[in-house]
Amino acid sequence: MWHKQINASISVCDKNGVILELNDKAIEMFKKYGGADLIGKNLIDCHPEPSKTKVKSMLLEQTENCYTTEKNGIKKMVVQKPFYQNGEYAGFVEMVFEIPFDMPHFVRK
């Protein structure tokens, strides 16, 4: 599949927060927390407060979340969005990828 080796971390959980899939980059990113062994575990249990409360709320209300982070001189974009199967809420997809510090921003008309 295309997402297996893309240069972005992709994690998928069901609507209860159970981790269904991690691509290669996600397995590497979460290596110190168990990597591939996280599949089948609940992601709520993987987060400290206040993130835990935020994740619970997102799962319940099907709200998306986007933000940037910086750690060790690397800036990343985090995008978390609900996904649907046959029109029914099925869970969340998270994508995390590096972005440049001086990334251009274009306003289109």
Q: Kindly, what is the distance between the CA atoms of the first and last residues, rounded to a whole number of angstroms?
A: 35 Å
What is the succession of H and E elements?
EEHHEEE
Report the β-strand fraction as a percent range.
35-45%
CATH T-level topology: Beta-Lactamase
Q: Largest sheet at a glance?
A: 5 strands, antiparallel
Question: What is the CATH architecture term?
Answer: 2-Layer Sandwich
Order of neighbouring strands in the sheet with most strands: 2-1-5-4-3
CATH superfamily: PAS domain
Radius of gyration: 15 Å
Uncertain runs with pLDDT below 50, 5 residues or more?
Answer: none
Number of strands: 5
The level-1 CATH class:
Alpha Beta
**Structural domain count:** 1
Helix content: 10-25%
Could you say which overall geometry the principal axes of the C-alpha atoms support? globular
Summarize the structure in short.
Helices cover 16% and strands 38% of the residues. It is built from 2 helices and 5 strands, in the order ββααβββ. Strand 1 and strand 2 form a beta hairpin.
